[in-house]
Specification:
alpha/beta; Rossmann fold; 7-stranded mixed β-sheet; 5-stranded antiparallel β-sheet; 10 helices
C-alpha cells in the first residue's frame, strides 16, 4: 500500500489501484490476512491475503449469478451447501428462494464471517440470522469428505487456488462433492478470470469432467475482478439442467418472486455462451 492507495497485483505484470479512505479492520488469522477498507470508488472492500474478494458496489453481479443459475436451473433444490462465502453474499441470494429448506455454509475462517457481519452488513442483510441457515466453521474439503448429508446444489464460493483453498481444487474434493450430490445435483464454483487465468479454468474443467457427465462454464463480468469475465464452473450428471429454455427459466423466476439487480432469465441462458478462445482451449483440455 502506498499512501492511501492499495494496489492489487494478482496477475503478473498487471494490477489495479484502489483509493482507500479508511481501514475498518485488518488482522492476521491462522489462515490468512484479512482487511476491510472503505474506498472512494467501490464502497467497502474485503481483501484476503491482499486479493480483492468482494466490493459493496458490484458484489451482486457475482453473488446473484453463482446462486440463481444452479437453483433456477435445478427447479427443485431444497438443500444447498455453500463452501466458503463467509462474507454472506451468496447465502443472502440463496435464501431468497422460499422453496429452499436449509442452507449449510462451511467457512474455514470464523473471522471472515465475524468481520463481514460487523463491517459488511449490507452483503448478508441478516442472512446469518435466518433460521434456514446453518453456519459451520470447518475445512470445506474435510466437511464434504465426512458428511452423511446429501445436497441438491453445491456452491463453492472460495478464493483462488492458494492458501487454505488449495484442497478445494483437488480431485478427491470433487469426487466427494459428486457423492453427496448424487445424479440430480449441480455443482458451481468460481474458476478465475479466463483472460489471465487460463490454467485455472482448464484445470477445473479437466478435473470436473473426470467426475461429472456435463461440465462447462458460465460467464459474468464483475468490474472489481480485473481482467474481464469471470468463469463460473458448472458440473452435473444431468445434462438437461443447463439446457433449460429462457421460457422455463422465466417461469421459475416469476414464481420465485425474487428481486435481482444483475441476474435475469435472458442473462441466465446467455451466460453459457463461451467465447471462441475458451471453447478452443476446452476442446484440447
Amino acid at each position: 500500500m502506498t499512501g492511501n492507495w492499495f494496489t492489487e497485483t494478482l496477475h503478473p505484470g498487471y494490477g489495479q489501484s484502489i483509493k482507500i479512505t479508511e481501514t475498518l479492520a485488518q488482522e492476521k488469522t491462522a489462515y490468512q490476512d484479512i482487511a476491510i477498507h472503505q474506498t472512494r470508488a467501490l464502497g467497502r472492500v474485503l481483501l484476503l491475503d491482499g486479493i480483492v474478494q468482494t466490493a459493496e458496489v458490484d458484489e451482486y453481479y457475482y453473488h446473484e449469478m453463482i446462486a440463481h443459475l444452479p437453483i433456477l436451473a435445478h427447479g427443485g433444490a431444497r438443500k444447498i451447501l455453500i463452501i466458503g462465502g463467509g462474507d454472506g453474499g451468496t447465502l443472502r441470494e440463496v435464501l431468497k428462494h422460499s422453496q429452499v429448506d436449509n442452507v449449510t455454509l462451511v467457512e474455514i475462517d470464523s473471522r471472515v464471517v465475524e468481520l463481514s457481519r460487523r463491517h459488511l452488513p449490507g452483503l448478508s442483510t441478516g442472512a446469518f440470522e435466518n433460521p434456514r441457515a446453518n453456519v459451520v466453521i470447518a475445512d470445506g474439503a474435510e466437511f464434504v469428505a465426512d458428511t452423511k448429508e446429501c445436497f441438491d446444489v453445491i456452491i463453492i464460493d472460495s478464493t483462488d487456488p492458494v492458501g487454505p483453498s488449495l484442497t478445494l481444487f483437488d480431485d478427491p474434493f470433487y469426487k466427494n462433492c459428486a457423492e453427496i450430490l448424487g445424479k440430480h445435483g449441480i455443482l458451481m464454483r468460481q474458476a478465475g478470470v479466463p483472460f489471465f487465468q487460463k490454467e485455472v479454468y482448464i484445470s477445473a474443467y479437466r478435473k470436473l469432467t473426470g467426475v461429472f457427465d456435463d461440465c462447462t462454464f458460465a460467464l459474468v463480468a464483475v468490474p472489481t475482478y480485473c481482467g474481464g469475465h469471470m468463469a463460473l464452473a458448472w458440473a452435473s450428471d444431468n445434462t438437461l439442467y443447463r439446457k433449460r429454455s429462457v421460457e422455463v427459466i422465466a417461469k421459475r423466476f416469476r414464481a420465485a418472486a425474487i428481486v435481482t439487480r444483475y441476474y435475469n432469465p435472458e442473462i441466465h441462458v446467455g451466460a453459457f455462451a463461451l467465447p471462441t478462445f475458451m471453447k478452443s482451449a476446452l476442446d484440447f483440455a
